[in-house]
Write a structure and sequence with these properties.
The chain is mainly beta and 204 residues long. The chain has one domain. It is 13% helix and 37% strand. The longest helix has 27 residues, at 2-28.
Length: 204
């Protein structure tokens, strides 16, 4: 008899579960209503910024080739650095030796380079082979004097950070008086570049 009671109880439990499941299924078939509303569409246009930096010779040809460079010589050329796009966050200068030699090995007696700016366009004189430059405004060192090969040197307060801003620059390359005989007959080719980096993104 114990077996029969147990069997009967099991059937009742199963039957009860079946009824509960059916009730849940019926409840799930009900229909619910709700009010809705939508806002008027807001048209939004986003245009990506444009970065554009240009280097042009101010008067005499640049790039330039020179020969018979001796200790104490300096070659200077003026260029204009203009921002033709949107604002930059920073501008840096790099120079690389596309053809290197002892002249570009970074020693104190090797070729040296500096970049200066004038607050107004440089006044140029001399000849195409030996130009001279003077500034009627304020002169600033934007790339301090140092070895001719440089990497990502930030320009100091360049005007070309702003859209349509222009920096009036001179690039000078010199061979120190202390250069000795090991520099005789050597040659090198250089590639100079200015790189503008976008301003940091902000919340709009």
């Amino acid at each position: 008899m114990s077996a029969k009671v147990t069997s009967s109880t099991a059937r009742k439990v199963v039957g009860s579960l079946g009824v509960i499941g059916a009730a849940a299924a019926v409840a799930g078939m009900g229909t619910f209503g709700s009010f809705t509303d939508s806002s008027t569409p807001v048209n939004t246009t986003i245009q990506a910024g444009t970065l554009n930096i240009d280097v042009t010779a101010a008067r005499y040809a640049f790039p330039v080739t020179t020969s018979n460079f001796v200790p104490g010589d300096t070659m200077t050329r003026a260029i204009n650095l203009k921002n033709s796009g949107d604002a930059f966050g920073s501008i840096s200068f790099s120079s690389a030796a596309t053809v290197g030699s002892v002249l570009t090995d970074g020693t104190a007696n090797g070729l040296q380079l500096s970049v200066k700016s004038c607050s107004v366009p440089w006044t140029q004189g001399g000849t195409a082979a030996a130009p001279t430059y003077s500034c009627a405004g304020v002169v600033a060192d934007v790339v301090p004097a140092g070895p001719v090969v440089r990497t990502n040197v930030p320009l100091t307060n360049p005007k070309s950070l702003a859209s349509n801003g222009t920096d009036y620059l001179t690039v000078s390359i010199s061979l120190p008086l202390a250069a000795d005989n090991k520099f005789q007959g050597q040659s090198a080719s250089l590639s100079l570049a200015f790189t503008g980096t976008q301003a940091t993104g902000t919340n709009r």
